[in-house]
Amino acid sequence: MEITDQIGGIELFSDLSPEQRHALARIALRRRYARGAAIFSEGDEARGFYVILSGAVRIYKLSPEGKEQTLHIFEDGDPFGEVAVFSGTSFPAYADAVRESSLLFFPRDTFISLIRQDPDLSLAMLAVLSRRLRTFAGIIEDLSLKEVPGRLAVHVLSLSEKNGGQDEVELTMSKGQLASLLGTIPATLSRIFSRMQKGGLLRSEGTRVLILDRHRLIRIAEGDERLS
């Protein structure tokens, strides 16, 4: 598929004209990363931003002791690294490929030149950044106010929503990475999965999760019910 066509399928650029998409296609660089490959490290100069064509990318921080804290998992169509690019700073976290990933890389200097020529490009970016800010505000609220079962319930329901409301969802990361994302440890996460399964809330088989009682799962996600 031509880069122009791929750019047209990305939400970030979906409202742009064909001419604008062609202009972006001329500066975009294809990059592929194997599973587990590093994309950038905290402190690296932000020389451009990325959009995921296929695959998944994890953004994480490292504590002084070397403990990883997953901040977010980005998937098909998601941009990442754009905030540091526009602020002119270095990347504030690490990024690696959760699975084999195909990305488009937009160099900072040439992208900013395009924006100066055509300010409509920046309006699309601002809309996505606004939604991203609301998403991260919700993540911070979940981590600070919800217990781990509530965080897990929110995550599973979010995956279901992305899958058209289906009761069967597929985890897009290892359970170790999911534990890090939810601010817990793998052993605790495994115990919660087990308790939810015994309580008839869901069934977990490897990366496949089947929601059995959506109503109660929503109540746990909203803090109206505690996991017994």
Plain-language structure description:
The chain is α+β, with helices and mostly antiparallel strands and 228 residues long. It has two domains: 3-142, Jelly Rolls (Sandwich); 147-221, Winged helix-like DNA-binding domain superfamily/Winged helix DNA-binding domain (Arc Repressor Mutant, subunit A). 44% of the residues lie in helices and 25% in strands. The protein is built from nine helices and nine strands. The chain has helices spanning 3-8, 18-27, 82-87, 108-117, 120-145, 148-162, 175-181, 186-198, 214-221, and strands spanning 29-33, 38-40, 48-62, 68-74, 79-80, 94-107, 168-170, 202-205, 208-211. The strands form two sheets. Strands 1, 2, 3, 4, 5 and 6 form a six-stranded antiparallel β-sheet that branches. The protein has a three-stranded antiparallel β-sheet with strand order 7-9-8. A hairpin with a 2-residue loop joins strand 8 (202-205) and strand 9. It is elongated and about 60 Å long.
> CATH homologous superfamily of the largest domain, by name?
Jelly Rolls
Instruction: Specify the CATH architecture of the largest domain.
Output: Sandwich
Mean pLDDT: 86
Helix proportion range: 40-55%
Number of strands: 9
Largest sheet: 6 strands, antiparallel
SS summary, helix count:
9
Using only CA atoms, what is the Rg? 19 Å
Tell me, what's the shape?
A: elongated
- SSE string, helices as H and strands as E: HHEEEEEHEHHHEHHEEH
Query: Regarding CATH, which class of the largest domain?
Result: Mainly Beta
Low-confidence residue ranges: none
